[in-house]
C-alpha cells in the first residue's frame, strides 16, 4: 500500500515541471487517488493559468469516482479569487471527501483560509508536514516571510581557490573554470530564477549575455550594478532582448527594455531588495565577481550559495569568496564538483 509521503512526493515531481514558469506563484502538483490507484494528476503549468488541483480534477476520466477519492497536493489549496477561481470551491463542488496537504501556505492571501474552508464544508483535511514540500517552495515562502527575493550566490573557482586571474593590460574575455556540461546546468539554473545580477566589472571583463541559451526556458530579468554609469551601450547586456535594470546613483529613466534605477550607493543592495519585492521578483541569482558576491555575503542578503569547483589551477589571481560554514550538499558533474551552502 502506498503511503501519504509517496503521493506527496509524486505531487512534488509534478510541481517541478512548472519551475521557471509559474513565479510569483508557488510550484504545485496534485494527485487524486481512489482505492490505492492514481486516477488523476496535474500541476500548475503557467502563471495565470489553471492551478494544479483544477488540472488534476479535469484529468479524471470518471468524475463519479471523485466522491470516494483522496486529493493530495503539496501546498494548501487557495480559497480566494485571483487570476483563477478558488481551488477549494471546486474540491467541495466535486464532493472530494479527503484532502492531504504537504505544507501550509503562509502567504497573506491564503494562510490557513483554504484549510478552514475545506473543513467548514465537511472535507477531511490532513496536513502531512512534508519537509520536501517546504524545500520545493523555499523561494515563495522566503518572499512572503522576509519581503524580499530568495537570493542564490553562484560562482566557479579553481582547485587552488581562485575565481579569476589577475588581468594585465586591461585584458578581456572569460577565463573558463567549469566544464561545458556544467555550463548547461548553469543555464538551467538561470531559467529557474526571476532575475540575474552582476556588477560592472563582470560586464567589462566578460561581456556576458546573461540569458538562457544552453537550456530551454525563459530569460531572467538582467540586473547590472553600475553606480557611476561607466558602462557603454555596446555591451551584450544592453541589447534590449530582455528586460535589464541598471542600478546607479545618478538617474531614473526607461528606454525600451532598459530601466535605470537610481539608488543610494551605501544602501544599494537593501534598496534593490525592496524594489524587487514590489515588482514581485521572487528569486535572484548572483553571478558577479568577488566584490559583488562578497557584498551580498557581508549584508547577509543571501539564502543559498552554489560553488562550482573546477579541475583547473590558476596558481595565482583573485581569491574566491569564502563561506565560513559547512556545505549542505555536494555532487559531481564530470570533473567539476558542486557545493551547496544554505544561510540558515
Key phrases:
17 strands; ten-stranded mixed beta sheet; 344 residues; 24% strand; alpha/beta; five-stranded mixed beta sheet
Explain how this protein is built:
- This protein has 344 residues and is α/β, with parallel strands linked by helices.
- 26% of the residues lie in helices and 24% in strands.
- It has a 10-stranded mixed sheet, sandwiched between helices. Strands 2-1-3-4-5 form a 5-stranded mixed sheet, sandwiched between helices.
- A hairpin with a 2-residue loop joins strand 16 and strand 17.
- Helix 3 packs parallel to helix 4.
- The chain is elongated, with a radius of gyration of 23 Å.
- It starts with a helix and ends with a strand.
- The mean pLDDT is 93.
Query: How are strands sequenced across the largest beta sheet?
Result: 11-12-10-9-8-13-6-14-17-16
Sum up the overall morphology in one term.
Answer: elongated
Count of DSSP H/I helices: 10
**Element order, helices and strands?**
HEEHEHEHEHHEEHEHEEEEHEHEEEE
What is the radius of gyration? 23 Å
Secondary structure class reads: alpha/beta
Topology, number of strands: 17
User: N- to C-terminal separation?
Assistant: 36 Å
For the report, how would you describe the main beta sheet? 10 strands, mixed
Mean pLDDT: 93
Helix content class:
25-40%
Binned strand content: 15-25%
Low-confidence stretches: none
What's a quick, concise take on this entry?
With 344 residues, this protein is α/β, with parallel strands linked by helices. Helix content is 26%, strand content 24%. It has ten helices and 17 strands.
Amino acid at each position: 500500500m502506498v503511503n501519504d509521503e509517496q503521493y506527496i512526493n509524486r505531487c512534488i515531481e509534478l510541481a517541478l515541471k512548472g519551475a521557471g514558469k509559474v513565479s510569483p506563484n508557488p510550484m504545485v502538483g496534485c494527485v487524486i487517488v481512489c482505492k490505492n490507484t492514481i486516477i488523476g494528476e496535474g500541476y500548475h503549468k503557467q502563471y495565470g493559468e489553471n492551478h494544479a488541483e483544477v488540472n488534476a480534477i479535469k484529468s479524471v476520466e470518471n468524475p463519479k469516482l471523485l466522491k470516494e477519492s483522496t486529493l493530495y497536493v503539496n501546498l494548501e489549496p487557495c480559497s480566494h479569487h485571483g487570476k483563477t477561481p478558488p481551488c477549494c470551491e471546486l474540491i467541495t463542488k466535486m464532493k472530494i471527501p479527503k484532502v492531504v496537504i504537504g505544507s501550509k501556505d503562509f502567504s497573506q492571501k491564503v494562510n490557513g483560509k483554504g484549510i478552514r474552508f475545506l473543513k467548514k464544508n465537511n472535507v477531511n483535511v490532513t496536513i502531512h508536514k512534508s519537509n520536501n514540500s517546504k524545500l520545493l517552495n523555499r523561494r515563495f515562502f522566503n518572499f512572503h516571510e522576509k519581503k524580499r527575493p530568495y537570493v542564490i550566490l553562484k560562482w566557479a573557482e579553481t582547485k587552488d581557490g581562485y575565481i579569476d586571474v589577475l588581468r594585465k593590460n586591461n585584458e578581456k574575455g572569460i577565463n573558463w573554470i567549469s566544464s561545458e556540461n556544467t555550463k548547461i546546468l548553469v543555464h538551467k539554473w538561470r531559467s529557474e530564477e526571476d532575475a540575474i545580477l552582476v556588477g560592472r566589472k563582470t560586464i567589462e571583463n566578460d561581456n556576458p549575455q546573461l540569458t538562457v541559451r544552453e537550456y530551454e526556458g525563459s530569460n531572467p530579468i538582467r540586473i547590472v550594478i553600475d553606480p557611476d554609469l561607466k558602462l557603454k551601450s555596446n555591451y551584450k547586456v544592453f541589447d534590449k532582448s530582455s528586460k535589464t535594470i541598471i542600478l546607479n546613483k545618478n538617474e531614473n529613466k526607461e528606454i525600451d527594455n532598459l530601466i535605470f534605477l537610481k539608488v543610494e550607493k551605501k544602501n544599494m543592495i537593501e534598496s534593490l531588495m525592496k524594489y524587487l519585492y514590489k515588482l514581485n521578483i521572487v528569486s535572484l541569482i548572483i553571478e558577479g565577481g568577488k566584490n559583488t558576491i562578497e557584498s551580498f555575503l557581508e549584508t547577509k542578503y543571501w539564502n543559498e550559495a552554489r560553488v562550482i569547483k573546477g579541475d583547473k589551477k590558476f596558481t595565482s589571481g583573485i581569491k574566491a569568496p569564502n563561506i565560513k560554514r559547512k556545505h549542505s550538499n555536494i555532487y559531481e558533474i564530470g570533473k567539476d564538483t558542486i557545493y551547496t551552502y544554505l544561510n540558515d
